Amino acid sequence: MPELPEVEALREFLDEHLAGRVVERVLPLAVSVLKTYDPPLTALEGRPAGPTARYGKFLALRIGELHLVTHLARAGWLRWTDSVPAQPPRPGKGPLALRVVLEGGGGFDLTEAGTQKRLAVYVVRDPQEVPGIARLGPDPLAEGFGREAFGALLAGERRQIKGVLRDQSVIAGIGNAYSDEILHHAGVSPFKLAASFDGAQVDHLYAAVRETLRTAVERAHGVAAGRLKAEKKSGLRVHGRAGEPCPVCGDTVRSVSFADSSLQYCPTCQTGGKPLADRRLSKLLK
Known about the structure:
This protein is α+β, with helices and mostly antiparallel strands. It is 27% helix and 20% strand. The protein contains eight helices and ten strands. It has helices spanning 4-17, 131-134, 147-154, 161-166, 176-186, 199-220, 228-235, 267-270; strands at residues 23-28, 49-55, 58-63, 66-71, 76-81, 96-102, 107-112, 120-124, 254-257, 262-265. The strands form three sheets. Strands 1-6-7-5 form a four-stranded antiparallel beta sheet, with no helix packed on it. It has a four-stranded antiparallel beta sheet with strand order 2-3-4-8, covered by helices on one side. The chain has a two-stranded antiparallel ribbon with strand order 9-10. α1 (4-17) runs parallel beside α6 (199-220). The two termini are 34 Å apart.
């Protein structure tokens, strides 16, 4: 799933390639992708594109006085092309979900792999009209998001820290992969209760959030959209690397599976050498 660093890189890419171009056509190709009907997609046609904004994992492309907002979900992606085929694609065939064609040639496709169709597109007058954006918590890389604000979010949270970091209404933009990376960087168990952090631990975790995300954003800066997925994977230390040695201590990276996802962690770095139990137990093995 694209998370804050990759979506930020896509925002920069679109600012460079899209701003100032005029939208010629917008073609919806998957029935499930469009979540709004007023204004219609056709209202974007003939309008110039402005700057692109990021809200957590959402991209908001300003087109005229409207905004084309998308959330790429787990398996969605943006694919830019300098030459759009003259023949319109057939709806419902392959991973194509939506195509934007620009005057003078070029454009981009929104695609979604797999059978679970969760990619979402909205046409709105204000990005805050999108429910997912309206409920977002603060951006962890925003200048005003300081240590005290972070500590206040954790206070009273009786949930495990892994779930808190992934909750978009608490902090915007962090998903499964970067929450694993942040917790490994901080040396924290993903099952530790958020409210149990003392002042020094909050300091350390806050620093890990900022450093992990900033490093990932810097790594993705200037990378072409088509190479961002590979770049993300190459920079991960524990997520998706179960069975491999931890790059910090050499212990074997382990995994805990959920119904539709999994987390990875290093026992030596994060849990005092003890492997985590199945999530249903929600505790360390004795």
